[in-house]
């Protein structure tokens, strides 16, 4: 199982945003591209992968590659799935997730509660990490990435409470969705060795 | 210089399409993601790269990383640049390009005329190619990729007229924009060796 956790620091926590302006909705465009990069490949879906979008530490939406339906690669349709999830946010009580569309669930809570469920080690994809070419890919990866913002001090504190390793994917700092694509490639090729 | 040529087989050749439905506009969403993957990284632009979108073998729009302005990572704003370019298509005469917004030019012609200008060798990113891990990255890459469709027989014939090498990036067939991200990573890390 590959788990990808994306921190959306400005992300909306209510459905009152326009699909015509995803960048204006707390850069939801970034998060939508992360879902596509995490779950879709050419004419197929990564059934062994889940993408979790942490929305401003308030809600987390999980897209499960094994069960998601109606997931298309474009940003707008993924944004619509996020909006549909947020429309049902009142139904998420305590830590119980609610399925808001097939294979998409929403729950209350942010990074700490997500990592408690995911298990360790956690791999933080970060410019200041160990070069990916120098370490083997994790067996059951739990990747954490930030959106267009740097990690916040609260994120750092949460990550310190878990067994977190920092990995640098390359010499060029990438967008979050690009980093997900390269991280998948790292795993697909067993550390850039099997093509 | 890195040149990325994306073949948009169903792409629009006139500006009468809705930014609210880029997938319905001949999968223009695919092409927009390719521009972002080709030119943008975290908080920066790849000034040494140009992305050329071949629209149904009729027009080619070139986004030049060294001079493009107002390029944002979301699909919709890139789709708007494509629409603006197509609105000026009548001004492109013969093979002369017309600048339709800063750093964006449109010209008549498809793959053959693009490759005549780009030079050789051409690197076709394709599932059936030589594994990227087994060959050095090209010095002055001219990458060619297809959109969501396979190459057409006319594309194959054109590519045969040039010194074209096929390279396979990994064991999983990727979306065109994902392939561009991995191809950049291949170059950035000098064949997956420098992190």
Largest interface, by Cβ-Cβ below 8 angstroms: which chains and how many residues each?
A-B, 44 and 44 residues
pLDDT under 50 segments of chain A (min length 5)? none
Q: Classify the helix fraction of chain A into a percent range.
A: 25-40%
Number of helices of chain A: 5
Q: Characterize the biggest β-sheet of chain A.
A: 8 strands, mixed
Shape of chain A: globular
Question: What pattern of helices and strands is seen along the backbone of chain A?
Answer: EHEEEEHEEHEEHEH
Spatially, the strands of the biggest sheet of chain A line up as 6-7-5-4-1-9-8-10
Radius of gyration of chain A (Å):
16 Å
For the termini of chain A, the CA-CA separation is 21 Å
- As an assembly, this protein is homodimer
Overall SS class of chain A: alpha/beta
- Please count the beta strands of chain A (DSSP E, at least 2 residues each): 10
Q: Mean of residue pLDDT of chain A?
A: 97
How large is the share of residues in beta strands of chain A? 25-35%
Question: What would you say about this model in short?
Answer:
The structure is a homodimer of 195-residue chains. Chain A is an alpha/beta fold and 195 residues long.
Polypeptide structure, described:
Two copies of one chain form a homodimer. Chain A is built from five helices and ten strands; from the N terminus they run E-H-E-E-E-E-H-E-E-H-E-E-H-E-H. By secondary structure, the first copy, chain A, is of the alpha/beta class. In chain A, a hairpin with a 3-residue loop joins strand 4 (49-55) and strand 5. The longest helix of chain A is centred in the middle third of the chain and has 13 residues, at 75-87. The model of chain A has no long low-confidence stretch (mean pLDDT 97). Chain A binds chain B through residues 19-20, 22-23, 29-30, 33, 36-37, 40-44, 72-77, 131-134, 148, 168-175, 178, 181-182, 184-185, 188-189, 192-195, and chain B through 19-20, 22-23, 29-30, 33, 36-37, 40-44, 72-77, 131-134, 148, 168-175, 178, 181-182, 184-185, 188-189, 192-195.
